[in-house]
């Protein structure tokens, strides 16, 4: 994995307080996509939030709508904030790339998190999505618009992003049992985010086994 991608975990932990201050507590630009995602969930369903940050605004919105949330983030400081704010949800300190939780979920989100991974690690994440998706589970995630790498800035430090080509995301979704429902490139109604909404339809004996991740620190 490139050094830029490898530094992301440490960067977010160093600047967890600043990130939390800058992140809005309520949905604004994300609302339309989140409502489409929620419409595909069963009442009271379970959602896995990969790269949940401090639980705002995505997990907060889901919890307020009566869904059960399991959040995963590599920053202990951000997960500690989740546990204080939302003690009835479940929160794990873990690296999403190696995540294996012993259950399947009614929905999965990787909003503004998945695109910090290297190209190869993004490809590997589709097996993680599949391993944790119940039949019919929607998957909502953001990427870049075209294949490449980009370096942004956060708190004066380089912030790594990467994206595969749209065609490759489509192929990865299909090969892992996900039907693509919609895809918007640099959606002007969502602050320029490139968004994917898919749904897992595969069920059968070829699903991978589920184990509790040994590197996941669990808490309520």
β-strand amount: 25-35%
DSSP summary, beta strand count: 10
* Name of the CATH first level: Alpha Beta
Largest sheet, spatial ordering of strands: 8-9-5-4-1-2-3-10
User: Would you give the CATH topology?
Assistant: Rossmann fold
End-to-end separation: 32 Å
Architecture (CATH level 2) name: 3-Layer(aba) Sandwich
* Proportion of residues in helical segments: 25-40%
Protein structure class: alpha/beta
Shape: globular
Low-confidence stretches: 205-220
Which series of helices and strands comes N to C?
HHHHEHEHEEHEEEHEEE
Our Rg estimate from Cα atoms comes to: 16 Å
Mean pLDDT: 86
The CATH superfamily appears as Vaccinia Virus protein VP39
The total of helices stands at: 8
Number of domains: 1
The profile of the biggest β sheet is: 8 strands, mixed
Task: Reconstruct the topology from this structure.
Layout: H1 3-6, H2 8-14, H3 16-22, H4 31-39, E1 46-50, H5 58-64, E2 68-73, H6 76-85, E3 90-93, E4 107-110, H7 119-131, E5 138-143, E6 148-154, E7 157-163, H8 166-175, E8 178-187, E9 193-200, E10 217-219
Parallel strand pairs: 1-2, 1-4, 2-3, 4-5
Antiparallel strand pairs: 3-10, 5-9, 6-7, 8-9
Annotation keywords:
220 residues, alpha/beta, Rossmann fold, 8-stranded mixed beta sheet, two-stranded antiparallel ribbon, 8 helices, 10 strands, globular
